[in-house]
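Quick one, T. Sequence first:
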Amino acid sequence: MKAIVQRVAQASVTVGGEQISSIGRGLCVLLGISLEDTQRELEHMVRKILNLRVFEDESGKHWSKSVMDKQYEVLCVSQFTLQCILKGNKPDYHMAMPTEQAECFYNNFLEQLRKAYKPELIKDGKFGAYMQVHIQNDGPVTIELESPAAAVDPKQLTKLEKQQQRKEKTRTKVPSESSRERNAPRNKDDPSASSGAEGDVSSEREP
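Structure tokens:
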């Protein structure tokens, strides 16, 4: 799971020309859900976002207070493109969680945020919609969060990863053409055999 967390003076989401959500000072969170994410990653991200110290305290000391400490708002927007893997210049999203599963997971994420904080201070966009997200970054301050990598079960490896592993194994087992040529036994009648190297010009010199 990946999140881009921005400290904002204000932020809002518009869908079809209509503003559907907005906040004042607080955090705008762009969340990318991976197909391998579980409840463990979800709970980790909720804790990190709510306890991230990106605000100043009463004396003006920076990096001292969290969004909960300041009682500010949080605007969450689901963004599967954070799970992008580039193939050349083309984005590939096979690591993003499929839409139906991701929507349920994202709603659970919002629910956990509201349980851990104040429900009325957690806002969100519209899952799966084409949105315009207006962010007035304050600072600017932008923090990238990523859930800890979990141990991957071989059964859960993607098809592409399995294919890549097979290719690597094949390369280590099959000798290259050049190595086969070097290791091949030479015929006694092969003129290059007596010279000790192919293309030895000494064997072609006139007496």
